[in-house]
Amino acid sequence: xxxxxxxxxxxxxxxxxxxxxxxxxxxxxxxxxxxxxxxxxxxxxxxxxxxxxxxxxxxxxxxxxxxxxxxxxxxxxxxxxxxxxxxxxxxxxxxxxxxxxxxxxxxxxxxxxxxxxxxxxxxxxxxxxxxxxxxxxxxxxxxxxxxxxxxxxxxxxxxxxxxxxxxxxxxxxxxxxxxxxxxxxxxxxxxxxxxxxxxxxxxxxxxxxxxxxxxxxxxxxxxxxxxxxxxxxxxxxxxxxxxxxxxxxxxxxxxxxxxxxxxxxxxxxxxxxxxxxxxxxxxxxxxxxxxxxxxxxxxxxxxxxxxxxxxxxxxxxxxxxxxxxxxxxxx
Length: 331
Hints:
This protein is α/β, with parallel strands linked by helices. Helices cover about 50% and strands about 10% of the residues. A six-stranded mixed β-sheet has the order 3-2-1-4-6-5, with helices on both faces. A four-stranded antiparallel β-sheet has the order 7-10-9-8. It is elongated and about 70 Å long. The mean pLDDT is about 90.
């Protein structure tokens, strides 16, 4: 095949931009997570092409995770490693056990990410993932539907050490077209068409309906929304970090917060300060309702009593200070 390959060019351009932005030293290798599907295969081929065009610049290796959840998964993983090797990317199969709560999807994700993190050839090596713009749109919709706040609706970040997602601006149809241009076979995971999984129904039913009702462009609009929310979240997080320093009354484990001063900040900043402070002190599993109840000691102070938090922690406002206590620490 001669001449430009439009889809592959688009994928390579996205990869080149993401790696340039990361500005890695030449000696740092890359670990490519590849399932054999179109997205991760197109990513691996694009990285291989970029590496070949810049000898000595990058040293990509592939990791194919075998979750052992489907018949023939071990053979398929080995075939994917062999396919990538033919295109200049050496790799290995990582076999994992999928255990734990939260459903099969969540358990598989935990096992996969733990294996990929451990397989990095060096502590500085990023792990490249094949998430696309379509995956981002689905993530935003999930966050919206679950009411889990702007942080969840902000979706996936392009780089969240060690995870690098170069294709968040590329459509799933483009990755499939890139593989087709090169004549490379891809594997379609049956789980990606199984309506038992919420994300599959979003992909197959909800997004197409929204595209029809809103006359197209929905996935791109959701991706833009995620980017805007991420920018806002970063700004609020930075503001909250400064506010936290401003309202702390002491250093160390016994730190308390000056209630009146913290109450002067906007609610979104206050709650960020509270969540960070409570987490730092050992409060885990904090719900949004509990966080808002804690914030009422600031924004809606009417002399109310102490608040029970997870882990038997107690939060109270006393003499103008927010005080966190645990029964086991009280003599």
